[in-house]
Design a protein that fits this description.
This is ER-bound oxygenase mpaB/mpaB'/Rubber oxygenase catalytic domain-containing protein. Pfam families: MPAB_Lcp_cat. InterPro entries: MPAB/Lcp_cat_dom. By secondary structure, the chain is mainly α. It has one domain (7-264). Helices cover 63% and strands 0% of the residues. It has 14 helices and no strands. It has helices at residues 13-28, 31-38, 51-67, 70-84, 102-124, 129-138, 141-144, 157-167, 175-185, 198-208, 211-216, 223-242, 245-248, 252-264. Helix 1 crosses helix 5 (102-124), helix 1 runs antiparallel to helix 9 and helix 3 packs across helix 14 (252-264). It is globular, with a radius of gyration of 18 Å.
């Protein structure tokens, strides 16, 4: 890590809320992840049945992975293991999956790193090489906070680029997964008032998706929409740079503090 690297300088609450739904599409584009999430028997963690709880646990995982210490990450890993151990395919299912599979978790971690770097570039411009390298190495925590061994993370950004290109061959968003993802993107799992935000969320989600994923989801795009999207991200980036750090990284700081309180009082983490 270069001297002075601080992950808090690269955490964006605004960016995470905007780019998050697109990242879910990236992750679930691998059938093993998509069907594992859709068919999970852990109903209290379902985004369709309990969207607010799922939002809390997702943001907590990201906060712990990016900003937590070793004790935070160990405790969260143990809690998630209990949930993930229950998620596996049964005989006769269309797709075989297992949530504890390190290979699937490496793909999820790769999507989260890809989305983080992409969001930073779109809102603030590309990072200098040394800082980009440090960010990449730090983002291995997206996987090592779960079951991915550190050795599974590509050695550097060039190796990651090769991994990403090779992994695109396994992307396969079938109609069932696409329908599920569109329900999430249009907030069909939330109470009706929240659905007023759906057109805006579909717009930014489509903007953050790489073209192959956009096409696989059947989401329309144009040069005019791209220009609007680019302007929006530049404006939000300027606004974010004016904010004090606690506001820039909110709600990650909130959910990390919540995790530590839950650990202290022995309350469930997920």
């Amino acid at each position: 890590m270069p001297a002075g690297f601080d992950m808090r300088d690269h955490v964006s609450g605004i960016g995470a809320h905007l780019a998050g739904p697109a990242n879910v599409i990236l992750q679930l584009s691998w059938p093993g992840v998509g069907y594992g999430v859709m068919n999970s028997r852990v109903h209290d963690g379902s985004a369709m049945k309990h969207p607010f709880k799922r939002g809390r646990t997702t943001f907590t995982y990201l906060a712990v992975a990016l900003l937590g210490d070793d004790a935070d990450r160990t405790a969260f890993r143990q809690a998630v293991n209990k949930q993930h151990a229950q998620v596996y395919s049964r005989p006769g299912e269309k797709v075989a999956y297992r949530a504890m599979d390190p290979r699937l978790q490496t793909w999820v971690a790769a999507c989260l790193y890809y989305g983080t770097a992409d969001m930073i570039a779109k809102m603030h411009g590309p990072l200098p090489d040394a800082e980009a390298d440090a960010l990449y190495l730090h983002c291995a925590r997206f996987g090592t906070t779960l079951q991915m061994p550190a050795t599974a993370w590509p050695a550097d950004r060039a190796a990651f680029d090769r991994y990403w290109e090779e992994s695109l061959a396994e992307v396969d968003i079938d109609p069932a997964v696409a329908s599920y993802l569109l329900e999430l993107t249009t907030l069909r799992n939330f109470p009706r008032p929240f659905r007023l935000l759906a057109p805006f969320l579909v717009f930014v989600t489509t903007g953050f998706l790489p073209p192959p994923f956009r096409e696989a989801m059947g989401l329309a795009w144009s040069r005019r929409r791209q220009a609007r999207f680019d302007r929006l991200l530049r404006v939000l980036g300027r606004v974010e740079r004016l904010l004090p750090r606690p506001l820039r990284i909110f709600p990650f700081n909130l959910w990390l503090a919540d995790t530590r309180l839950r650990r202290r009082f022995r309350r469930p983490l997920v």
